[in-house]
Amino acid sequence: MTINRQNYEEYFMLYADGELDERQRQAVEEFVLENPGLQTELALFSELKLSPDKEDVFREKNVLYRKSETSRSASLIRWWHVAASILILAGIFTLINYSPDRNAGNQLTGRVETVKKDTTAINAIEEEKHPLYRKKGMDSMYASKLTETGKADEQLMPERKKQSAVKVNKYTNETEQPVDNEVSGSNQPESNRALATRNQPESNQVLAASTLISHAESGTEIKVDVGPPEKNYNSILTSAEINSLPPSVEEFPAEQGYIATRKRAIRSFLHKASHIIDKAAELRKTEQLNIRLGNIELAVQ
Amino acid sequence: MTESDYNDCVNNYADNVYRFIFKNLGHEEDARDIVQGAFEKMWTGRKEIDAQRCKSYLFTVAYNLMIDHTRKVKRIILKEGFSETAGIVYQPSGDHKRMLETALAALNETQRALVLLKDYEGYSYEEIGRITALSESQVKVYLFRARAQLRALLGKKENVL
Q1: Which pTM does this prediction carry?
Q2: Long-range pairs, B9-15, Cβ under 8 A, ≥24
């Protein structure tokens, strides 16, 4: 198909749109040269071409961008894991460190552990002095003594079970006693007097050792001279008995003072609280919507 | 098509497809909605889309959405004839582009879409046929009619001069 005056417009459009091959383009150009009056029409087809307006852009491209759900969820899960772990650990740490009861427990446990260390040291000293002296021998000895003492001594067993929470060693019961004393807040002078009347000279040595051990917490040097096991038999029994007696306040004046102060504070608080409750009850009887805290009364409209 | 290919397609062709739809509809909000819908569809079916043909796919989807939109809202009145705008005279120089766009708005949606795909994006007739679901010969005929109308609008130059 050749270009002529009947179909030249179609060819002009194809020429302007770039849809003709090289040979067809040359044919169109030759046709225009042969017909100069149609040059304006060919130029007009070129002018009909639209050019894009660069100002018309899609401005909110961020709403079009996408990220795979898998990678996004994986990263979120990782963050959640980390955040949850941190929160849980922080909560546990706070509860452990800021609980008043727990602090008190920690103090007691610390003291008990200190006493344990001291008793262990004493055991080592005793074993050095008396190689034949062994815990096993002491265990059997103590059991036989319990059998001899009968019911009176059996009453001591629950006491010792209580002490077993602090890992009771028969031979170190005396040294663990201060811990119980501190907890119970009882007195101990009677136990000292009982020891003075009951014990033999050898057993007094053990008693003296136990007294020294009880002060080991203060850092004083401990020197123990313990006699042969056979001679200490009575002293062990008496120590067990002593454990059942109230502890001495004089041995722990600071702790006892602290406990007494706490007791006074709690008693004072409860006393004031009972006053406030009484006053509130009186106000309720008069059907007045008042709030009284101590000496201050607030009227609520 | 991967996630990266998709986002590259956003970077490279979001403006083009928006311009194409906006010039067809003459309505910015509708054009934006259609472009978002087209990209949404492309993202959904990205596993079946060849990254090399993402532009054609995007324009095809956008064109179909636009056709659905215009049929629904009847915002554009199809005009097969050219008699109503025959009286418009050509004004050269700075007003040429504005006059051309005015004449473009007078075309029916198919003609306008074909002209825009050809002039704005430089698609061949064959590619335009694939996007608009027309044959190559149909594209040629429709485009010829569109050009004739535009020329009639702008070809009265000698009357102005």
Answers
A1: 0.47
A2: B9/B39, B9/B42, B9/B51, B9/B54, B9/B55, B9/B58, B10/A61, B10/A64, B10/A65, B10/B39, B11/A61, B12/B55, B13/B54, B13/B55, B13/B58, B14/A58, B14/A61, B14/A64, B14/B39, B15/A56, B15/A57, B15/A58
